[in-house]
């Protein structure tokens, strides 16, 4: 039996009286890219925060690497990119990477910084202050930080917002290479053509997980050609 890397079982979560997740069960298995999609406010970031132990569930269970969350030890084993950039603006890109690499106990820091900067195309800008970076450059630096140490699990909340199409393609190529090397990736996106690139799409609507399958199987089930159409039809049916 495969042991899931991330497993949510019958998870419910409320903020005040607002039910954000209603009995959601959902797993991310080793070596797959799972795309979490849903309209704004559907609860995607809440799922991510639960997986990271930053939010606790009201009911149900969340495990990561088979350990019940929250569990601080797990954090060293995963790369996380939040929806808003948490960078030190007064430091250069390189210094930001050095800081996070040291904090995470990454070995061979200099070569690791070169590696991750190359992936996100930031090499020529590493010695500039982060305060002078454009929005897209800050996203790229945050993504590079998540890649530091080549973690077995990546959790990425809207990683490609503000990133140009050619670099976005390069980043997805890299994510797929990582997956092919056995890494596990949970990613949220609003970009529907990115959802075509994942192994499994988990669609959240109204606090419920209403679809959870490969893009092609979902397209067949809804008799449409794209995940965007699946999304629109699922919303209409709600
Ligand atoms: N700390 C909080 N306190 C109160 N309400 C919250 C909190 N965090 C999230 N919410 C609410 O929970 C709902 C789900 O939020 P969440 O950020 O998980 O959505 P999302 O699917 O990630 O949205 P988006 O695509 O816009 O990022 C929203 O209505 C949001 O306002």
From TrEMBL:
| Top-level taxon of the source organism | Bacteria
Write down a Pfam family by its short name.
Answer: ABC_tran
Which PROSITE patterns does the UniProt record give?
ABC_TRANSPORTER_1, ABC_TRANSPORTER_2
CDD domains given in the database record: ABC_subfamily_A (cd03263)
Name the InterPro entries on file.
Answer: AAA+_ATPase, ABC_transporter-like_ATP-bd, ABC_transporter-like_CS, P-loop_NTPase
Does the record bear ATP-binding in its keywords? yes
* Protein's UniProt keywords contain Nucleotide-binding: yes
- Under the GO molecular function aspect, what terms does this record hold? ATP binding; ATP hydrolysis activity
**Keyword set for this entry?**
ATP-binding, Nucleotide-binding
The molecule here is called ABC transporter ATP-binding protein
**Which species does this protein come from?**
Weissella koreensis
Source organism phylogeny: Bacteria, Bacillati, Bacillota, Bacilli, Lactobacillales
């Amino acid at each position: 039996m495969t042991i899931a890397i991330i497993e949510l079982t019958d998870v419910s979560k409320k903020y005040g009286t607002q039910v954000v997740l209603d009995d959601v069960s959902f797993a991310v298995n080793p070596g797959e890219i799972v795309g979490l999609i849903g309209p704004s406010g559907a609860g995607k970031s809440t799922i991510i925060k639960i997986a990271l132990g930053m939010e606790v569930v009201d009911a149900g269970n969340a495990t990561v690497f088979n350990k019940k969350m929250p569990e601080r030890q797990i954090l060293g084993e995963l790369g996380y990119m939040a929806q808003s950039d948490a960078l030190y603006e007064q430091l250069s890109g390189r210094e930001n990477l050095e800081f996070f690499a040291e904090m995470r106990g990454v070995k061979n820091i200099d070569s690791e910084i070169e590696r991750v900067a190359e992936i996100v195309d930031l090499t020529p800008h590493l010695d500039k202050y982060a305060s002078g970076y454009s929005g897209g450059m800050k996203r790229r630096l945050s993504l590079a930080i998540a890649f530091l140490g080549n973690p077995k699990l990546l959790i990425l909340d809207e990683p490609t917002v503000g990133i140009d199409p050619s670099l976005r393609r390069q980043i997805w190529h890299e994510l797929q290479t990582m997956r092919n090397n056995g890494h596990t990736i949970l990613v949220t996106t609003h970009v529907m053509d990115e959802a075509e690139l994942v192994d499994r799409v988990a669609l959240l609507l109204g606090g419920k997980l209403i679809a959870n399958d490969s893009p092609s199987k979902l397209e067949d089930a809804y008799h449409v050609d794209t995940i965007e159409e699946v999304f629109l039809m699922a919303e209409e049916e709600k």
